[in-house]
Amino acid sequence: MDENNLVIRLDPSDNVGVAACSLHDGQLAHCEGRPLTVIGDVPTGHKIAVQAIAAGAKVVKFAAPIGSATCDIQPGEHVHLHNLRSDYLPTYTFDPGKAYVRRV
Amino acid sequence: MRGYLREDGRKGIRNVVAVAYLVECAHHVAREIAWPYRDRGVHLIGFPGCFPNEYAERIMQQLCTHPNVGAVLLVSLGCEGFNRHNLADAIRNSGRPVETLVIQQSGGTFRTIEAGRNWVEAARRELDAQEPVSMQPGELVVGTICGGSDATSGVTANPAVGRAFDLLLADGASCIFEETGELIGCEHHMAGRAVTEELGREIVASVAKAARYYQAFGHGSFAPGNAEGGLTTIEEKSLGAYCKSGTGPIAGLIKPGDLPPRPGLYLLDVVPDGEPRFGFPNIVDNAEIVELVACGAHLTVFTTGRGSVVGSAVSPVIKVCANPDTYRNMPDDMDINAGRILESAVPVDDVGRQIYELVLTVAGGRQTASERLGHQEFVLTYKTFEPTGPDCLPGV
Q1: Residue A61, φ and ψ in degrees, nearest 5
Q2: Distance from B306 to chain A by nearest Cα, in Å?
Q3: Of the given ranges (A58-67, A95-104, B98-107, B291-300), which has the lowest mean pLDDT?
Q4: Which of B377, B390, B231 is nearest to B316 (CA)?
Q5: I want to staple B14 with a disulfide (CB 3.0 to 4.6 A). Which of A39, B68, B250, B310 is the partner?
Q6: Cα A27 to Cα A18: distance, rounded to the nearest angstrom
Q7: How far apart are the first and last CA of chain A?
Q8: Hey, of A1, A86, A94, which one would you mutate to test binding to chain B, going by the most B CBs within 10 A of its CB?
Q9: How far is A60 from chain B (nearest CA, A)?
C-alpha cells in the first residue's frame, strides 16, 4: 500500500477519491502526496472529497458526474448517502435496525 | 483449446445434457431425474409459468440448442401452455438427441423419473464418447456481469475485465456486456463508441427505456448492500459497471436470444419493450446470466465486491472478486482476486491478462470455482420484446 496515496483519485478531473484501505476520523492520509485530514470513518473503497464541493455541485468520479452534493462538503470528508444524491433515480438502503428506506 | 462441434458450426466448451421442465408442475420430476448426475454434466433448466410467452419459448430454444449443450430431455406435465412440440422440433433439427417425457402420459411421477434417468444415462454415455475438435479463442462468445457490487468493483475487478475484453476482441472473439438499467448515466459515452451514429442513438434510447421502466417500478437497480459497500447513486454504480466493457468499439445492440452476428463487442438490452407488464426487468443476477447464455455466451465473467457465490446452468461462470476483504472471507468461491489492485498496487493490466488467460483455460476444460462447488443456478421469467431493429446491427 502506498502511504502517499491512501486516497486514490481515479481521474485528474475527479473531486472525490477512493479509500485504499479503511481510514478513521481525524487520520492524516495523503492523496497523490498531498495531505488530507479524514473527516468521518471511511471504509475501504468508499469516497472522500479531495477538494471542497459546494451544495448543489456535481460530485465527479471516473471523470463523470455521479450525482449532486446535498450540502457543502469539506476536503477530507466521507462522501456518501448523507451528502450526495442521484440525479436520476433514488437510492434504497436499510437504516440500522429499521426498515427499507428510500433516499431522495 | 478444444470444443464439441455442433451441426450449425458452433463449438461448445462443455458437453452438457440439459434436463428442461416446461412448467413448474414438472420441476420436481425434472430435478429428480437430473440430481444423481449433477456432477456428470447434467444440468437442470426450465420455465415455471403455465401461460405461454414468446420470449420464454425463444430463450428455452436458444439454451437447448446452445453449443455447450449436447442432448436435451424435455419434461412436460402435459397440459401447460408451453409449446413442447416446437421446442422438440427445434432441438431435433439442430442435430441433438432429444426426448420429451409427458408426466401425464408416462404413468406419473415415479415412472417418469425412472424413464428420464434411463434416457439421461444413455445420452451421457453417447456424449462422453464424442471426440472434441480444436477450437480458437476467436470462436468464443464471452459475457460479463457484475453482482453484489461495492465501491471496489468499479476500481478493481470491472476495469480488469475491461482489459480482458480488449484482449479477447483482439483475438476475434465476441464479447457481450449488459444491463442497460445499470448503465444509466453512461449512455452518451457509449453512443460515442458505437460503430455508427444510428446505433449510438439506439443505445441512448435503450438506456432511456431502462430508466423509464425502473421509474415505473419506483426502484432502480440498486440494493442496500451496494450502499453499505460505499456506492451512493445509480450513476456511480453504472460508471463502475461500465468499465467491464473495455475500450473496443460497440458493434451492436442485441436483445436476449440474439446471437452476435459477427465478432465484436455487443451491448445486451435486457429491459423489456412496451409498457411495464411482468415486473422488474431482471429479478436477480442469474436472470441476466441466462440471457447472456441465450445469446450464445460460452462462459460468463462475473465481478463481485460484496461476494456473490452463484454459477450457472449450461455455461461456466468465472468469479472475479473486487474487494480484498471479501476475497479473504470467501476464497473458495472466487477464481481471481482483483482486490490486489487496491491492496498491493498490482497493475489493472496484469489482472486483466490473468482473467483473459483464465477464460482460455476454462474454455479448455478447467472447472471454475462455482462449477467445482456444484452451482448451477437458473432463473427464467416472463418478458416481452419487440424484434431487434436494423439500426442496432449495422452492416448485417
Answers
A1: -140, 150
A2: 12
A3: A95-104
A4: B377
A5: B68
A6: 15
A7: 36
A8: A86
A9: 9
Residue B94 grid cell: 439442430
Global ipTM: 0.89
Cell of B320: 472475479
Question: B248-264: per-residue pLDDT in tens?
Answer: 999 999 999 999 999 99
State the Cα–Cα distance between residues A57 and A67, nearest whole angstrom: 9
C-alpha count within 13 angstroms, C-beta hemisphere, residue B104: 7
Q: What is the pLDDT of residues A36-85, one digit of tens each?
A: 999 999 999 999 999 999 999 999 998 889 999 999 999 999 999 999 99
Q: Is the distance from CB of B22 to CB of B74 less than 8 angstroms?
A: yes
- CB contacts, 8 Å: A40 with chain B: none
Find all residues with CB under 8 Å of B248, minimum gap 6, and list them.
B165, B166, B169, B175, B193, B264, B265
Q: CB–CB of B124/B280 below 8 Å? A: no
H/E run at residue A83 = none
Cα B13 from Cα B4, distance rounded (Å): 7
- The identity of residue B39, as a single letter, is D
Residues 6+ positions from B352 with CB-CB distance below 8 Å: B159, B160, B161, B162, B163, B164, B166, B167
* Pair B144, B248: CB distance under 8 Å: no
Please name the amino acid found at residue B72: V
Pairs of CB atoms within 8 A across A/B: 111
A88 chain-B contacts, CB cut-off 8 A: 184-185, 211, 220, 233-235
C-alpha to C-alpha distance for B369 and B363, rounded to whole angstroms: 14
Find, among B16, B30, B125, B3, the residue nearest to B70 by Cα: B16
- CB proximity B232 to A under 8 Å: yes
Which chain B positions have a beta carbon within 8 Å of A90's beta carbon? 219-220
The CA distance from B211 to the nearest CA of chain A, in Å, is 8
Q: Give the residue carrying C-alpha cell 474487494.
A: B323
The CA-atom distances, in angstroms, between B223 and each of A8, B71, B150, B168, B292 are: 25, 38, 10, 31, 22
Placement of cell 431482471 in the chain: B282
Q: Is B101 helix (H, G, I), strand (E, B) or coil?
A: strand
- Chain A window 32-71: which residues touch B at a Cβ cutoff of 8 Å? 43-47, 61-62, 64-67
Cβ count near B224 (within 10 Å): 14
**Per 3-state DSSP, what percentage of chain A is helix, strand, and coil (rounded to 5)?**
5, 45, 55
